[in-house]
Amino acid sequence: MVFEDESSDDTSSLSYMHSTSSTDGLNHVSFILEDPDYQGLELDLMVFYEKHGKASEGLVAFEGTDTGRRFLACAEPEGRNSGFVEWVDHRWPPTMQNALLKLWAMVEYSKSARVNDNIESALTIHHLIEEKNKLEANYDKSELVADVKAEMAKKDAETQKLNQKYELMVNLTRAQATVIQNLKLKNVKEKELLSEARMKLGSQNAELTNSKEKLTQEKLELKLQVADMLKGKEKHSEEKGQLELQITGLVKGKEKHREEKGRLELQIAELMKGEEKLKQKVKGI
Asked: 3-state DSSP: the chain helix, strand, coil percent, rounded to 5?
């Protein structure tokens, strides 16, 4: 099925054929969406179209389940333009694709309804003209003036209602395009939040690992000190007292590390819950 955006300019209806580098198995991208954040030559990726050897142009698809997906196309002028090069974004999740299909179905329905309304309006206007001609033929000019004014006022009111209905259909189409764009932005933001949460979780895991290693090292040092203490029983009782004080300090440090470990484990559990909620939100889109 091919979709049109009547509010777009001429460039939005260009057809971009796929090259052999496409991995999605589609035949073409029929329509594009103007996106100020992604347009012009794509110099960062430096993807050159093999036929011309020049930088490709970044565009955004506006068709079916590919709506909002960025892709690269030949940037040559019309006549030498070879069309589609490759996709930049992966396919949307199934929930996103279903939402897009429903929105496009609503667009098709509104377009069909608008066409039917236009046909009915044309027939109504045709009948009005015929009635007007009949009135002009059957009535005297003096009697016709009042009747024509009343009839024209009535028909003007009907025409105004038809125009209001047409404007409502146009606003619905524009609102649907806005919803599609908002869904795309929401999906990108949620992915960024999920990525930040994962990075934070990894950092805290690294800190916990370092704390465990430090605690293990301190335990080893404690064992060595105890062994030295057992071997040096002949040393002065004062040195023994100092060693016992060191052991007491190390034991307190161990308890402190255990408390810190417990706090870190609680933080990790909270982060994992947050990550699960984010996944549920992404699945729900």
From this structure: 65, 10, 25
Residues 122 and 86 both lie in one domain: no
30 with 13: CB under 8 angstroms?
Answer: yes
Residue type, 56: S
Q: Are strands 70-73 and 48-49 parallel, antiparallel or unpaired?
A: unpaired
The residue behind tokens 């028909």 is: 155
pLDDT in tens, 124-169: 888 888 887 777 666 656 565 677 777 888 888 888 888 888 888 8
Considering the domain architecture, whether residues 121 and 140 belong to the same structural domain is answered as yes
Q: 110 with 153, same domain?
A: yes
Range of the structural domain that residue 150 is part of: 95-186
Q: Within this chain, do residues 106 and 121 fall inside the same structural domain, yes or no?
A: yes
Long-range contacts of 213-217 (CB under 8 A, 24+ apart): 214/257, 215/254, 215/257, 215/261
pLDDT-derived band at 44, boundaries 50, 70, 90:
low
Domain boundary among 39, 59, 91: 91
Q: What is the pLDDT of residues 244-273, one digit of tens each?
A: 888 888 888 888 888 888 888 888 888 888
Q: Tokens in use for 226?
A: 């105890």
* pTM more than 0.85: no
Q: How far apart are CA 156 and CA 43, in angstroms?
A: 56
Structural domains counted in the chain: 3
Question: String of b and e for 37-76 (b: at least 16 CB within 10 Å)?
Answer: eeeeebeeeebebeeeeebbbbbbbbbbbbbbbbbbbbbe
User: Where are the strands (E) in 11-108, listed by range?
Assistant: 16-17, 28-29, 48-49, 54-55, 57-60, 70-73, 84-87
Task: Say yes or no to pLDDT of 22 above 50.
Answer: no
